[in-house]
Design brief:
Elements: E1 3-9, E2 12-18, H1 24-31, E3 50-53, E4 56-59, E5 72-73, E6 84-85, H2 87-94, H3 104-117, H4 123-129, H5 141-155, E7 162-163
Parallel strand pairs: 1-5
Antiparallel strand pairs: 1-2, 3-4, 6-7
Helix pairs in contact: 2-5
């Protein structure tokens, strides 16, 4: 029994038919073609599927698409756009905090939710915000540096996407 829902993703409304048991991650990737968010574990433990709604990071692999009917949320595709990176994305590139890239969209989204709530977080607050995101490639030193530097850029009022080099 399919159900028609409307999702407000990255400022655009999409209407689609879904099965009631489909996760938001499945619908965003398979119906809308937004493949930046990944499915790593399917149990909400790895953070690869992290999106933002109501200013909070959440696991889209644990959220049913029908729960988001009529609601607005942001995926990694909503941060930067062609040729223009969000400051968090730019700092991840600058500091080499990206290796295989599988986990990075989720970590960036968790960082964005944190920096929107707290523009000057401590290292402990950053660690707590990204604790649900697992990265096997980079370690976390460069990720922490990138988030700290992005916070400084955003505090200076340069929080909009910037041209990519």
């Amino acid at each position: 029994m399919r159900q028609t829902i409307t999702l407000h993703v990255n400022g655009t409304a999409y209407t689609t038919d879904v099965e009631p048991r489909q996760t938001l991650l499945e619908v965003v990737r398979d119906h809308l073609g937004l493949t930046g968010s990944k499915e790593g574990c399917g149990t909400g433990d790895c953070g690869a599927c992290t999106m933002i709604a109501d200013g909070r990071a959440f696991s889209s692999c644990l959220t049913l698409a029908v729960e988001m009917d009529g609601r607005a949320f942001t995926t990694i595709e909503g941060l930067g756009y062609a040729g223009h990176l969000h400051p968090i994305q730019a700092k991840f590139v600058e500091h080499g905090a990206v290796q295989c890239g599988f986990c990075i969209p989720g970590i960036i989204m968790a960082a964005k939710a944190l920096l929107d709530r707290n523009p000057n977080p401590t290292d402990e607050e950053i660690r707590f915000a990204i604790a649900g995101n697992l990265c096997r490639c980079t370690g976390y030193t460069r990720i922490m540096t990138a988030i700290r530097d992005a916070a400084a850029v955003m505090r200076e009022g340069r929080g909009e996407p910037v041209p990519a080099d």
